[in-house]
Amino acid sequence: MLNSIPQRVCALLFGALLTGCSSTPDLPAFTASGYLADRGTVRIWRKNNDHQVVHLRTVFTPFNGDAMETTDYNWQQQKLISVERRVAGAQPDDVTLRFDHQGNLNFMQRQLAGRREAVSADSVELYRFDAQRMLDQSNALLAGRVLLRQGHWLGGNQVRECDDKLVNAAFDRDTLFTLGRQQQSQSAPLMVSWLEAPEGVQLLRATPDDECSWQPKESDF
User: Fold this and answer.
1) Domain membership flag for residue 217
2) Do residue 138 and residue 70 come from a single domain?
3) Which of 33, 12, 4, 7 is nearest to 201 (CA)?
4) How many helices (H) and strands (E) does the chain have?
5) Could you read off the pLDDT of 58-103 as tens digits, one per residue?
6) What average pLDDT score do residues 154-161 get?
7) DSSP symbol at 215
């Protein structure tokens, strides 16, 4: 079962990459997608404004239970203008970078628990690299129509999404078995995140935490 999850996600991503090379689907300005990384789940919310301004928010949730990492990237006229990374938990670690329209760094700060630090030049370049990598990943996922959905599992294929809409998710038998086993130890409905694509449906994450409470909304962007 565990081995089948990466294989199916790879199939979704491979289909997305193939589709992304040939077309750009007509999608709403505000979208969500995601994928399974080696060490955790990555969820990506995105808003495009007239194709000149792009705001990307990535949420990385490690498999090992470490604190969630949220990063906001902003581009104007295809130029990266800001990066804001926040790591919650007992050891907060926040980084803010701002760039001018020529790509020059004009503000940087790293805020740790009780102190501030400068951000090294190597780290700045790594943040630039990650920003472009996440934008490319988002482009490929959305071009392939790999879309993220989230909500509370009500049993079977029924999910109440975070906007209170009741939907039927095309979970397969193995996924339903996994959800049922996790639900046995919980009194409240599980929070589930899953991917939908032309290639199929893949469960991304299931947790007892109510992540609808912080799910980004279009108005947040």
Assistant:
1) no
2) yes
3) 12
4) 3, 13
5) 999 999 888 999 999 999 999 999 999 999 888 889 999 999 989 9
6) 96
7) -
For CA atoms 72, 74, 80, 83, the dihedral sign is negative
81 and 74 Cβ atoms separated by less than 8 Å: yes
CA pair distance 94, 68, nearest whole angstrom: 12
**104-114 tens-digit pLDDT:** 999 999 999 88
Q: Are residues 117 and 66 located together in one domain of the fold?
A: yes
In whole angstroms, what is the distance from residue 193 CA to residue 60 CA?
13
Q: Which of 143, 161, 181 represents a domain boundary (last residue)?
A: 143
Distance CA 27, CA 8 (A): 24
For residue 132, the SS3 value is helix
Q: Does 102 share its domain with 14?
A: no
> Which domain covers residue 108, as residue numbers?
26-143
In the structure encoding, which two tokens stand for residue 67, read together? 């604190």
